[in-house]
Amino acid sequence: MTKRSGGGAIRVAVATASAVRRAGLERIVRSHVDLHLAGSFGAVASLVSFARSNELDVIVIDSDSIRDLLPVPTPDAAIVLLTEVSDARSISRLLRRGVRAILSRESDPDDVISAIYAAYEGLVLLSTPAAETLAAIYGDQPLEVEDEFSEEITSRETEVLRMLAEGLVNKDIAVRLGISEHTVKFHISSILDKLGASTRTEAVTLGIRRGLIPI
Question: Can you tell me the distance from the alpha carbon of 119 to that of 25, in angstroms, rounded to the nearest whole number?
Answer without folding.
Answer: 16
